Every structure is written in C-alpha cells, then in structure tokens.
C-alpha cells in the first residue's frame, strides 16, 4: 500500500511540475518588448488628432428636411425661422419677424459641411454665412466664431426637425 501511495504521489508531483512549466513567467526583457508596441500605439493615438469621417452627422443622421423654431430678436418678439435643407446641398431659409407687421425675409443658397461632418454653413448669393451644428433632429445656431450660443437664451437658438405625419 505504501508503494501505491508513493506511486500516486510521484505521479501527482510530475503532473504538477508539468503544469507549472506551462505558466512560466516571462523574463523582464520579454515583458518590456511585449509592452513596447502597446505603449507606442497608445502614444500614436494620443499624438494624432483623429476625426471620425465614417460616423458623423453628415453620413449617420437623416439631416435633410424642414426645421423650425423661433430665434430671439433684439427689437421684436422673435424671429420665426423655417429652414429647408436638401440632399443636393441647397437650402431655403424663411424668417418672419414677429410683432413687426410680420415682415418676412427669404433666402436661398448652398450649404457646405465642415471637415468633421458635424456643422453646416449656409451661404447665400451675397456670400454671407450662417452656421448650424447638426444634431439628431435638431440644428443648433452657432455664433459668428462658430461656437454654440450659451447663456439663458441658448435653448432658443435651436431649430427642430418637422416630421411628416
């Protein structure tokens, strides 16, 4: 019985040794050479400004259509705004000044996308440009520097897409 026990113990030790050899820890030089590519890749990603041209408002959202809203006005009750964007890159903008005998102005022209594919610039025949950040079913009017409007009236500078009933 002692021999069976010794034989069993010897087999167990041999198996344990064989399994331990499979999980041999890497040497320091192996670990540093394996880590270098990953560290280089992270550094490259951080150093390079990445613009995702595959997934942006221009090619991921259903942006064409009619947008409406009332934008604040310094000397009237507001500017009722209707903006129609089509897939051919043209726009039609109608603005009605509320409280001023309903003065209405219309403008047509082309619009262009920025490189990031998230902002459009409406350009009319006189070369004037108005910028909007394109969101899901919304257009956010930008200031003259191309920044989102902030402050207490910021939410009023949003046009909302109208959906067909």
Strands, helices and their partners?
Blueprint: H1 2-22, H2 28-47, H3 57-60, E1 65-71, E2 78-85, E3 90-98, E4 103-113, E5 119-124, E6 129-135, E7 138-141, E8 158-162
Antiparallel strand pairs: 1-2, 1-8, 2-3, 3-4, 4-5, 5-6, 6-7, 7-8
Compact description:
This protein has 165 residues and is α+β, with helices and mostly antiparallel strands. It has helices at residues 2-22, 28-47, 57-60; strands spanning 65-71, 78-85, 90-98, 103-113, 119-124, 129-135, 138-141, 158-162. The model is unreliable at 13-20 and 22-50 (pLDDT under 50).
- Our measurement of the CA-to-CA distance between the termini, rounded to an integer number of angstroms, reads 88 Å
| pLDDT averaged over residues | 77
CATH class of the largest domain: Mainly Beta
- Overall geometry: globular
Structural descriptors:
single chain, 165 residues, alpha+beta, Lipocalin, 2 domains, 8-stranded antiparallel β-barrel, 3 helices, globular, Copper resistance protein NlpE, Cu-R_lipoprotein_NlpE
Structure characterization notes:
This protein has 165 residues and is of the alpha+beta class. It has two domains: 2-47, no CATH class; 63-162, Lipocalin (Beta Barrel). The chain contains three helices and eight strands. An eight-stranded antiparallel β-barrel has the order 1-2-3-4-5-6-7-8. The model is unreliable at 13-20 and 22-50 (pLDDT under 50).
């Amino acid at each position: 019985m002692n021999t069976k026990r010794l034989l069993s113990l010897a087999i167990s030790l041999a198996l344990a040794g064989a399994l331990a050899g499979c999980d041999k820890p890497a040497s320091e030089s192996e670990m540093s050479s394996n880590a270098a590519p990953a560290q280089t890749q992270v550094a490259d990603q951080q150093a390079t400004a990445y613009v995702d041209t595959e997934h942006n408002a221009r090619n991921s959202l259903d942006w064409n259509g009619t947008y409406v809203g009332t934008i604040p006005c310094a000397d009237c009750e507001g500017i009722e705004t209707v903006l129609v964007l089509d897939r051919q890159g043209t726009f039609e903008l109608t603005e009605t000044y509320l409280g001023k005998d309903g003065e209405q102005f219309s403008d047509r022209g082309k619009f262009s996308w920025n490189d990031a594919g998230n902002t459009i610039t409406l350009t009319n025949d006189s070369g004037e440009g108005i910028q909007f950040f394109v969101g899901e079913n919304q257009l956010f009017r930008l200031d003259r520097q191309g920044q989102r409007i902030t402050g207490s009236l910021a939410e009023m500078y949003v046009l909302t897409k109208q959906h067909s009933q």
